[in-house]
């Protein structure tokens, strides 16, 4: 019936209490954040944010508390949502922002959509993809896939998406979030090749909110990582190695999880699949390695250089 759009919301939100329903597509999804503290008695102190868009532009949407376990896994990149009885708040200034696949898209950064279990209880509906009409004008999900041959020329902190065949995966390791803290990040190293270079992608994969994928990254799986950040060693080290690390909005997919994902239409993904069809599986399997300690970045080969 009566819908509003994100551009109209930004212009009118201060003068309204109730808003018309919104029809949006999810373009990015963050990891789930737990913000519980021992002294605060909250049932479900969870939060996740998404970047959602319609024909007028893109805005952040925050999912709060007990709505997270109920909705987080159903809200995928590409999912179309009908939202009603949501609230609008000024944006949290310190959150990270993904790099949009479409650089022309307008971003509404001053406000965000807040979805709560009460005051008021938000009504969320997922619209199946086959029922989405072109006249709604919802943008498609766009990606920034790169090949291994393009990686060395990219600047530090550049955001990109990659696809490759896993040739090495290390054991899960832990790093303290802060010194003397009891909280740890869980991560593992992986190598993936795409046929465009002799060198693999070196990937530092932190555990996202996808434990079922993170634990099952094996050699010979097709690995897709989105919203990765380029880490270039900016010193004058001739043996410098460029690698990619996950960001707050990274999503990881392995063989068995690709069906129906929006990136399957991407030209570079199709090129990779074509290259894989020309490869001998037995030859590639001989080159694969799993587990073990992986010191990276590698120390210099002599104490003098160290």
Automatic annotation (TrEMBL):
Which InterPro entries has this protein been placed in?
Answer: NA-bd_OB-fold, RADX
Span of the signal peptide: none
Q: Which domain of life is it from?
A: Eukaryota
Q: What sections of the protein cross the membrane?
A: none
Xref: Pfam families: RADX (PF17659)
Q: Which molecular-function annotation in GO is an example for this chain?
A: single-stranded DNA binding
- What is the designated name of this protein? RADX protein
User: Which species expresses this protein natively?
Assistant: Myiagra hebetior
């Amino acid at each position: 019936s009566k819908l509003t759009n994100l551009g109209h919301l930004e212009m009118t939100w201060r003068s309204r209490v109730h808003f018309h329903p919104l029809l949006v597509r999810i373009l990015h999804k963050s990891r789930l954040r737990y913000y519980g503290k021992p002294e605060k008695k909250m049932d479900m102190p969870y939060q996740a944010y998404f970047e959602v868009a319609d024909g007028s532009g893109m805005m952040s949407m925050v999912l709060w508390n007990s709505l997270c376990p109920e909705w987080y896994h159903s809200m995928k990149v590409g999912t179309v949502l009908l939202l009603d009885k949501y609230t609008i708040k000024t944006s949290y200034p310190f959150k990270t922002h993904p790099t949009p696949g479409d650089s022309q898209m307008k971003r509404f950064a001053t406000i965000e959509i807040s979805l709560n279990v009460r005051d008021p209880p938000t009504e969320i509906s997922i619209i199946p993809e086959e029922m989405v009409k072109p006249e709604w004008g919802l943008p498609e999900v766009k990606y920034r896939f790169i090949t291994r041959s393009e990686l060395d020329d990219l600047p530090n902190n550049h955001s990109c998406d990659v696809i490759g065949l896993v040739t090495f995966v290390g054991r899960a390791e832990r790093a303290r979030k802060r010194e003397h803290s009891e909280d740890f990040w869980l991560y593992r190293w992986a190598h993936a090749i795409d046929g465009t270079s002799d060198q693999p992608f070196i990937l530092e994969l932190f555990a996202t909110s996808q434990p079922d994928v993170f634990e099952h990254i094996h050699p010979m799986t097709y690995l897709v990582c989105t919203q990765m950040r380029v880490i270039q060693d900016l010193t004058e080290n001739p043996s410098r190695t460029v690698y990619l690390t996950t960001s707050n909005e990274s999503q990881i997919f392995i063989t068995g999880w690709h069906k129906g994902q929006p990136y399957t239409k991407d030209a570079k993904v199709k090129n990779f699949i074509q290259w894989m069809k020309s490869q001998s599986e037995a030859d590639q399997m001989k080159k694969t390695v799993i587990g073990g300690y992986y010191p990276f970045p590698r120390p210099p080969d002599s104490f003098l250089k160290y």
